[in-house]
Amino acid sequence: MSNFRICLYLSWIAFSYVMLAGCGKNSNADPLEHNLELAGDNRPELEKVLIHYRQNPNDSLKLKAAIILLSNIEKATYYDGPWLTQYNAIFANTAPLVDYKIKALKDSLISKIVEKNDKNLFTESDLKSLKSGFFIEHIDLAFAAWQSAPWYKSVSFESFCNYILPYRNFSEPPTIWRKELRARYDSLMTSKYDTSMQELTCRFNEELITWFKYSIHFDDYPGRIDINNLLRGKRGNCSDMANLAAYIGRSYGIPIAIDYTPQWANHTAGHVWNALVINQNEFLPFLGAEDSPGDYYLFTRGESKPAKVYRKNLIKVDSSFAVKAERLGIEESELPIYLRNARALDVTHFYTPTGDVELDFNVSDDTPVYLCIFQRNNWQAIGGGFVKDKKALFKNMGRGILYMPMFYKKGSYEAAGAPIIFPLEGDPIAIRFDSSKRESMLVERKYPLKRTRSKLYMAEFYRYARFEGANTPDFKDATLLYTIENPMEKWVLTDVGGYKMRDNLQYESLWEEATIKSQKAFRYVRLAQSFHESIKVGELEFFAPQSSAPLNGTAIGSVPNPHHAFDGVPGNSIVLNKQRGEDHWVGLDLGTSTTIAKVRYLPVNDNNKILPSRTYELFYWDEYWKPLAKQKAKEHTITFQNVPSNGLYWLHCRDCNSTEERPFRIVNGIQEWW
pTM value? Predict the structure, then answer.
């Protein structure tokens, strides 16, 4: 063995080997040597990094970091090629654009650049392409930032390796960025003696909020957008926002992690955000360019439920499902997509109520079994376990969630038991339909009502709308009764039952009301539009003093079918559009002058209610989704007959052009959503 290799392995042995977890019976005993071999012709460049830090005894810690880094990037790849080079020109023009114009610009650009194929867009391996100077500069600057920071002693070497040392987080093209970002935000570091990690993170994130904007139009970008294009284009999705914040923080020696849920448990989407890591058991979640540490309320006030939350690590996580599978000789390609990452640290218990689920399976020991969540009319594994003595333990699973135990083989799932609800308290509850008991079922929706969506996309249309009274039908003598300045202002999740209500909000609870102070009497009352493009009206009610019943009258207005605002059917909504500078309105002719003491209004419903003339099909779960009946809706509800009771159901709209559908049970005659 050469002197280089002898010194290298002495350094390696001196380092705590546990930080390179995952060395099971099917693992390479030396991850570093394995990756050097994978590098092929680029191996000498990687060895130069190790030689560089071996020469000076003062660089022993850098040598350990270099070994860790090079031992953990075997899967690191990025996209390159003429297509991407030409596409990246878009980021010179996106910064000043409103979001909807970005799509038009993107479509125009794609029509003009080279064809997107394997020749013009391909992947490169970090091990095979990156040179020694790249790694050395990143390692040196990472150490300089860490060791010069006032919080240096509070950040462990392990945290440094996982959350400061990495030069990228996703599959964005690797770049040199630490020096530039350090210089860009150096003015925010007022004094190295009075600035904490949290304070500096809040400072740079508040600056990001002023210019970086969320956009969905780059969700399909190959890999992720590199840091230079993020700074230039000033647009990206939640992954880009988290990435940008992590880069900036790391340039100052701040350990900023990337946390994520690959799939929410109660709707079809995932999410990515940041965590400012204080220590192993303490951190502050936030999201770059959106909310700073201490102000991120996604999990306390939002409506999304996580079954699992993971943290991106550089170093393999010994407790990860992928590492356990590797030790049993199970190839990564045999695992479900969300469980293939051996560097995913499970941090679910920090974000949501969790517990361990133990289930029985009549299969041989070491058989992998999965708990799956519903995803776009199918199931996707989110947690896994291995059978031992006919039982499997699924650790740290999010509560208040529907799970489906399943086997996974060759890309397909097979039911391994009955679906279960893991309640906020207590043991899992199996859902088993009763085929001997049939009943009628009334359904009103195919997807749960989301209160956040109601505020942002329905109630928000009411902002600055005005209620008026008059005694002439043209409202030339109108008196202002009330202006809606902040619809649903007081709403937080706890107002509607907290965690338990994240999926089971009832539409009627969205009624808003206001007290009218005017003592005048009016024959005509109305809701009129102000300062907004449109108002989507569900229902309106006007009340006389000391009356619990709304006033009756003849519906009037400047729009077709004004009676829809008073017919008690929120699905029969109307829209007040602002045209030719005239306000549109809807109201009542009360027939006689009356004092108005109170008004109530209900935002328009969303399009997941039952829509007349659309065709719906009801399924129930019996080892797979079995079709039960198909009907064309005539009203805003549908009743299905002869339905097996106590089951798990799914309502599919065949012609709604919408993928928002969720499983449900019927509890006391009401759809209970999961």
Answer: 0.88
